Amino acid sequence: MKIFRYLSIKNKLIALVLMVALSAIGLGSALVIYNDLKTFKKDMVNNTDTLAKFLAEACQAPLAFDMGDELREELDKLKGLPSIENACVYNEEGDVFAVYEKSPGGFIPPAIQESASSEFKGDYLHVFLPVLVKNKRYGTLYLRASTALLDQKINDYLKTMGFGLIGLILLTYLLAARFQRGISQPILRLARVTDHITRDADYSVRVKKEGADEIGTLYEGFNNMLEQIHLREKQRDEAEAEQRRLMVELEEKNKELEQVVYVTSHDLRSPLVNIQGFSKELGFSLKEFASLIETEDLPPDVKKRFSLILEEDIPDSLKYILSSTTKMDNLLSGLLKLSRVGRTTTTFSNIDMNELITEINHAFEFQLKEAGVEFKVDDLPSCFGDETQLNQMFSNLLSNALKYLDPKRPGKIHITGRQQGDRVVYCVSDNGTGIPKGHQKKVFQIFHRLNPEDTEGEGLGLTIVNKIVSRHGGKIRVKSEPGKGSRFFISLPSLKSIKEKINSPTAQY
Amino acid sequence: MDKMKRILTALLLLVLVPVCSLADGEGEQEPPEYRVKGVFLEKFADFVDWPNDSSVNNKSTPFCICAIGENPFFVVKNDKNSGDWLHLLYNNRKIRGKKAKIRFISNVKDIPGCHLLFISRSEKKNLSKIISTANKNHTLTVSDTPGFSKKGVHINFYIEKDYQKFEVNETAIRKSGFRVSYHMLKLAKIVFPWEERK
Description:
The complex is a heterodimer of chains A (509) and B (198).
Chain A: H1 2-6, H2 9-64, H3 68-76, E1 84-91, E2 96-101, E3 117-121, E4 124-133, E5 136-146, H4 148-179, H5 181-200, H6 214-295, H7 300-343, E6 348-351, H8 353-363, H9 365-371, E7 374-377, E8 383-386, H10 387-403, E9 412-420, E10 423-430, H11 461-471, E11 475-481, E12 485-493, H12 495-503
Parallel strand pairs in A: 7-9
Antiparallel strand pairs in A: 1-2, 1-5, 3-4, 4-5, 6-8, 9-10, 10-12, 11-12
Helix pairs in contact in A: 2-3, 2-4, 6-7, 7-11, 10-11
Chain B: H1 2-21, H2 33-47, E1 48-49, E2 63-68, H3 85-90, E3 94-95, E4 98-105, E5 116-119, H4 127-136, E6 140-143, H5 148-151, E7 155-160, E8 163-168, H6 170-175, E9 179-180, H7 182-187, E10 189-190, H8 194-197
Parallel strand pairs in B: 2-4, 2-5, 5-6, 6-7, 8-10
Antiparallel strand pairs in B: 1-9, 3-4, 7-8
C-alpha cells in the first residue's frame, strides 16, 4: 500500500479500478470455474452412468441366456466411445463372463462390487451397475472410463478462461485509463494552475468550471479564493503605493521645511547683525552726544531734560533692542543647529559610551563644580551611532539637568545603562525640580519651555535630542515627578542588532 | 477377425473358468441339455410379459411350470427315479417373485392353471389342440422340437454350432397377448408363420 501513496492520481485511479475489477472478476471466475469443473466431472459421471444403464439393459438377455458372443457384440459397440477403456460383465455368480478392451492387453477385471457405484480412482472413473431383470440380478456390469478426455476438456476450458480473463483485464485497463481522465484531468488542471500561481504569483488566472460534481464546486471555491486574493492584493498594492507617495511627499515637505528653517534663520541673521551693530553704534553715538551736551552751555532745565532722554530713555530702549536681538540671535542659532541635525549626514560606528561620557564630563567640569552637583556614571554598554550627535544628545540632557536643579537641595545627576535584548537603554536621572504631569509630553516640542522666566534657553534642547534619537531609530521617554526629579530613558540599537540588520538585504541606514 | 476374438475370449475363459468352477468342487463338464433348458424356462418368464388378465400377475398364486407328454427332464435319461431337473432347479426358487410349482401333465384338460407349458416331442399329434388350449389359458408354450414353432408354439429350442439357441414365433406370441422383450427377441431366431404355408 506504500507504493500506492507515491502513484500519480491517474495511476491511482487505474490501479483502484483494476483492483476492484480484478477482485470481482477473479472471485466470479473462481466460482464459475469451480462450478464448471464440478459440472464437468458430474457430467462425465452422469454420461458414464447413463451409458452403463443402456449397456446393462442390452446385456440382460445375452447374460440371461448365457450367450457370450452376443454379449461381446454388445460390448464391442463401446468402440465408438473413446473414453471407455475397459468393460467387464460378471454373471449371476460374480464370475467374469465377458471382457472388453479398447486396446487389448493388460486389463485385469477388478473385484466385483454388488451395488451400483461410480467413483474416480487414479486416472479412471470406475462404474459398477447390477444387471437386473424383473428385479432379479443376472449379473454386474463394470465400466472403466479414462479421465484423459475430461482432463483435456478441463485444460482447454481453463486456457479459454485464462485468455478470456486476460482479455477482460486488458479491456478493464483500457476502459479505466480512458475514463479516469474524467476525474483526474480536472484535478491535474487545478494542480497546474496552482503551480503557475505559486511560480508566477499571478492571481488573475481562473480555472474553467466543468461539470457539477464536487470538483466543480472545488473549482468554484478555488476561483472565489483567487478572486479574493487578487482583490486584496490589488488593495494592498494601492495602499502601499499611496503610503509610498505620502512618505515621499512627507520627506519632501520635511526637507522643504528644514530648508525654510535653515534659510530663514541664516538670512534673518544678517539684518539682525546689522541691527545689533548699528544699535551698538547708536550707543556710542549717544554717549558722544551726551558728552557734547555736557560741554554745551544750556539752560539747566533743558539740560536736565536732555540728560533724562539721553541717559535714561534712549539707553533703556537700546538695552531692550540689544537684549531682544541677542535673544533672537540665540533663537536663530538654535534653529540652525536643529536644522543641521536633520541635514548633516550621520556616520554610524561603534561607540564606547564610557569614553564619550568622560569627554562630556570634561566639557562640563566647570559648570558641575560650580553647581556643586554629585555626578555619577555607571559602567555603560556601548552602542551603535553617530558620535557627534550622541555627544550633542548627552550634552543637552546634562545641560538640562543642570539647568533645572532644585536650589533647595544638593544636586545629583546619575547616568546608567543596560543591554535589553537587541537594544541598549540609557538613563539620565536627576533630583531637580521635575516636570509637571501636563508638560511631560510637551517637553520635546519645539520652543517649549518649562518656566521661561527663570531659565535661559530657546526651548530647542530636547527637540534636538528627540530628533537625534529618532534619526538613530531609537526612542526616548521621560518619567518625572515634580519636586523630586526626572529620568530620561533613551533606547538605542545595540551593535549586535545593527550587525544583523546590515547583513539582511533590507537594511536601511 | 470375429474368429480371432472368439479364440481370444475362449482362451480368456479357459483361464478364468477353472478359477470360477473351482468353487463348485467338480470337474469341467458341459451342463446337461435339459438342465440348461430348464434354466432357460425361468429366463423366458422374466423376458416375457403375460397378458394383463393372466393369473401370473397375481402374487399370491404360484408360478406354475407344466410339462406335457413324455418327460425329458429326468436327470438320468428315462430314469424316473433319478429325479427331474425342473424340481431340482425350482424347488426353493421364485419365478417373477412367485413361488414356483412344477406339474407334469399328460392331458390337455390339465393345461388351465399352467403359466408356462413345455410341450414334449411326443405330443406332435395333439399339438394344435394343446396350442389352442394353451392360448385360451394365457399359457406360454415352449418346445424343443423342430417345426413346432412354425405350428404355433411360442418358443422353440434348437442347437446351433453346439450352442443352445431358441426361436420365437413372434406372430403367435403377440396374437396370444404376450409381450416379449426386445432384447430377448434380438437373441432369438424369428419364425414367421407364412413360411409354413409355402
